[in-house]
Specification:
Largest sheet of chain C: none
Mean pLDDT of chain B: 91
Oligomer: heterotrimer
Chains: A mainly alpha (about 550), B mainly alpha (about 190), C mainly alpha (about 100)
Order of helices and strands of chain B: HHHHHH
Low-confidence stretches of chain B: 1-5
Radius of gyration of chain B: 19 Å
CATH architecture of chain B: Up-down Bundle
Structural class of chain B: mainly alpha
Helix content of chain C: 55-70%
CATH class of chain B: Mainly Alpha
Number of strands of chain B: 0
Largest sheet of chain B: none
CATH superfamily of chain B: Cytochrome c oxidase, subunit III, four-helix bundle
Number of strands of chain C: 0
């Protein structure tokens, strides 16, 4: 159980308390998000104005361009998405939502954050070594990534591999904690069928991660050996197989996107009922769809490899399963939309971000169909169409879903309310500029604009698209500037925001029973017992439009 | 608090299994895919290169055998250590854990001898892809043995202090897992067909 | 009250030792199988023995046989994920389109 040492080091730094660890993950993740976003600024400036020095950065040659896009992708997936969606929200909310006083393994939890912190330092260190950071894309395909002389990057890439491996260990440690805690520490009355969907989604994400990361750990070590001691696991001239690496990577890479998606869907699942005053529609159906899609997630990965030279006969099964996997996710999204139907809606900032997550993700899902159909993918693979598709999925997941969660649970994390006006300004500018960036990219991709090239004007047929490039870049700059509203709001409200009551949103789930913020040791003044499901809003015959899980009777 | 009747300190829904045991199994389930993926990659490569049968016959089958016996026996000892820990017999539990550790150390000694023998013949991880896989897989496995020895040593300390005896089972699970991996590594590299 | 009572009462040190002896016997069987003429039969025997040994260690030493269903499902899921990996990668790395 949590010990009661309260010196500075044990309270703030090496805390074993899940709430403090969650905040550590959140702050680290948000800082890295800024870094990843600034990288996007630099390379988008290069794309819009090729050859011109980027204000605040300098010249971007092709090697630097590759490094920027590599680090942008790597950071956003592994140092923003994972730590915030899983590390921050999972850690903070799982014990609170199930009525526990902490995680099952507090010391392991602390080690999980510090492993993550070290991984962050290792990644940042890679910026400063000779040759600079990794440049082979976040996917790190060999042979380019397997031999330092091919890319000119030596230690930067080795440190990158090390950083990602450490990050994986951190998530594995966290995952063991989430599973054990949820299985063992649910309070009286919190049967599995009464758990908030958020908790289920964290479990599903953890399972997806734990069973998919294995081959990539093997592959990453093999890549590191190829780079450092000169083995040829993936280098063809000595008998190695580059395609094997792709399989090792994407076998993980595909479930990984669901590792990111599911917690975000979980966040939205909590917000929508609260602000529609209606139960979550189709709880069981959502669970079944999530389980089904989690199994399918392990059977579709080669849709990332359709034009790699893989066995063409495998294109059909992988393609077919990919198309099928869109169905259970569509079910989940439609269930969320059905929750809104005839609800009594309050358009708060978290609600707006949650709705935007669903709407934009739907666009992402729909654009994915063309990528998933092998024959059509031949045309769009490695173009901006794919880039746009995965931004239409990943940005709603990691940015909109994440922000929805931050605005929603900020009162619980920090005991104060964020400013609604600033929140709404932040939302509208973010949502609009996001679309202005990525809709043109769909068109560009369809027009044949390949990805991962630093200077489109080198190609005659791309010169006509420079207008769209400029539009996207300007929209991105506005998007980044608009985040200032959030950053200011976040830190100002932490100290000067209106003090929050325990349950400002009148939500039914258990975390709102704890004070805002929760009691430092033990979370709840009295550990609640659970008497009903998590979304009992507007129960007929009830005067109050919400019935908390922990209230024995409600009039 | 005995190994099989751990409970939470407040009233909760029934625990499914003690934290340590449950957590370790979840971790091991994920490790199945780590070693499984790696061994599968090796098997694929082996199927593509019929010439590798010749290299496989050059591994030291006798040492591989000895190491298999060592690990199987140390698995026996660690499960006996757990058996006596459950019955609170610290002396017997500690004795068997110590033996399990010693056999694990012996495994590493033989492995070291084996590697040294190979280096002396001019075989390194860079000789060819077969030997790359051989050194990598057996090396990664040996690293897991080292980690297991550390875990076991820490657990032995707890046994001697008579506290946290439920951890013997958890340490045992990890150790058995490393044994199971070796059960597959052995035929893949040492029994030339 | 907890549902984590794993019935290990019938597994005595004697049982564990018998299992150990069987494992050792299987080891020698697999060495013997290495000398069998037909490579296919030899491979099947050797890996069959490995699987039996692994299952015995998991069931009896790791007590998987009497574990709660969630653990059994988790372990199965690990092997299932591995199965998907093998099926999906095999054609590319071993099949006719590989190098």
């Amino acid at each position: 159980m949590t010990s009661h040492q309260s010196n500075f080091w044990n309270y703030y730094i090496f805390s074993k308390d899940h709430k403090m660890i969650a905040k550590q993950y959140l702050i680290t993740g948000l800082i890295m998000a800024l870094l990843g976003g600034l990288m996007a600024y630099v390379f988008r400036m290069q794309l819009a104005f090729p050859g011109e020095a980027v204000p605040g950065f300098g010249d971007v040659d092709s090697g630097t361009y590759n490094q920027l896009i590599t680090l942008h992708g790597t950071i956003m997936v592994f140092w923003v998405g994972m730590p915030i969606l899983l590390g921050a929200f999972g850690n903070f909310l799982i014990p609170l939502m199930i009525g526990a006083d902490d995680m099952a393994f507090p010391t392991l939890n602390m080690m999980s954050y510090w492993t993550f912190f070290v991984s962050t330092l290792v990644l940042l260190a890679s910026f400063f070594v000779e040759g600079g950071p990794a440049s082979s894309g976040w996917t790190a395909y060999p042979p380019l990534s397997a031999r330092p002389e091919y890319s000119g990057v030596m230690w930067g890439m080795n440190l990158w591999i090390l950083a990602v491996a450490l990050e994986f260990f951190s998530v594995l440690m966290g995952g063991v904690n989430y599973l054990t805690t949820t299985f063992n520490m649910r309070t009286k009355g919190m049967k599995f069928s009464r758990m908030p969907m958020f908790v289920w989604m964290q479990l599903a994400a953890t399972v997806n991660f734990m069973f998919s990361v294995g081959p990539l750990i093997a592959g990453a070590l093999m890549l590191l050996l190829d780079r450092t001691i000169g083995t040829s696991f993936f280098v063809p001239d000595k008998g190695g197989d580059p395609l094997l690496y792709q399989h090792l990577f994407w076998f993980f890479g595909h479930p990984e996107v669901y590792v990111l998606l599911l917690p975000s869907l979980g966040i939205v699942a909590e917000i929508i009922p609260t602000f529609s005053r209606k139960p979550l529609f189709g709880y069981k159906m959502i669970l079944i769809s999530t389980a089904f899609s989690s199994v399918l997630a392990f059977m579709v990965w080669a849709h990332h490899q359709f034009i790699s030279g893989m066995d063409p006969r495998m294109a059909m099964p992988f393609g077919l399963l990919t198309i099928i996997i869109s169905v259970p996710f569509a079910v989940v999204l439609f269930a969320y939309i059905a929750t809104l139907w005839k609800g009594s809606i309050t358009f708060t900032t978290p609600f707006l971000f949650a709705i935007a997550m669903i709407a934009e993700f739907l666009i992402g899902g729909v654009t994915g169909i063309i990528n998933g159909a092998a024959a059509a993918d031949i045309y769009v693979h490695d173009t901006y169409y794919v880039v746009s598709h995965f931004h239409f999925t990943l940005v709603p997941i990691t940015i909109f879903g994440m922000l929805a969660g931050v605005y929603y649970w900020f009162p619980k994390f920090f005991g104060r309310m964020m400013n609604e006006t600033l929140g709404k300004i932040h939302f509208w500018i973010t949502a609009i500029t996001f679309n202005v960036i990525f809709i043109p990219l769909l068109q560009m991709g369809m027009g044949g604009h390949q990805r991962r090239i630093p200077d489109p004007t080198e190609f005659e047929y791309l010169k006509g698209m420079m207008g769209m490039h400029k539009t996207a870049t300007i929209a991105l700059i506005i998007l980044l500037i608009a985040q200032a509203f959030f950053i200011f709001n976040f830190f100002y409200s932490m100290y000067k925001g209106k003090k929050a009551e325990a349950n400002p949103w009148k939500s039914t789930t258990l975390e709102w029973d704890a004070p805002s913020p929760p009691v430092a040791h033990g979370n709840f003044e009295v550990i609640p017992k659970v008497y009903r499901g998590p979304y009992e809003y507007s129960v007929p015959g009830c005067k109050q439009d919400w019935s908390p899980q922990s209230a024995e009777t409600v009039n | 608090m005995s190994a099989s009747t751990a409970t939470n300190t407040v009233e909760t829904e029934p625990m499914l299994a003690p934290h340590g045991r449950l957590g370790m199994w979840m971790f091991l389930a994920s490790e199945v895919v780590v070693f499984g993926g790696l061994l599968a990659s090796y098997i694929f490569a082996r199927l593509r290169h019929s010439s590798w049968d010749e290299f496989a016959s050059q591994t030291m089958t006798s040492i591989g055998c000895i190491n298999t016996v060592l690990l199987l026996t140390s698995s026996l000892f660690i499960v006996l250590s757990h058996h006596w820990a459950e019955r609170k017999d610290i002396k017997k539990s500690g004795k068997y854990m110590l033996w399990a550790i010693l056999l694990g150390v012996l495994f590493l000694v033989f492995k070291g001898y084996e590697y040294q023998h190979e280096f002396a013949k001019g075989i390194t991880p860079l000789t060819n892809l077969f030997w790359s896989y051989y050194f990598f897989i057996t090396g990664l496995h040996a690293l897991h043995i080292v980690i297991g020895l550390v875990i076991n040593a820490l657990t032995l300390r707890e046994i001697r202090k008579g506290q946290n005896l439920q951890r013997v089972e958890v340490a045992g699970l990890y150790w058995h897992f490393v044994d199971v991996v070796w059960i597959f590594v052995f035929p893949l590299f040492y029994v030339a067909s | 009250m907890s549902s984590d009572q794993v019935d290990m009462g019938h597994l005595t040190p004697k049982t564990y030792t018998i299992i150990w002896a069987i494992l050792l016997g299987l080891l020698f069987l697999s060495l013997f199988a290495g000398m069998v003429k037909s490579p296919v039969l030899a491979t099947v025997m050797i890996f069959g023995v490995a699987i039996i040994k692994a299952v015995m260690v998991m069931f009896y030493y790791m007590h998987l046989k009497v574990e709660i269903v969630y653990v059994k499902v988790a372990v199965l899921a690990g092997f299932l994920a591995l199965f998907f990996f093998v099926v999906g990668v095999y054609p590319d790395v071993v099949g006719q389109f590989s190098k």
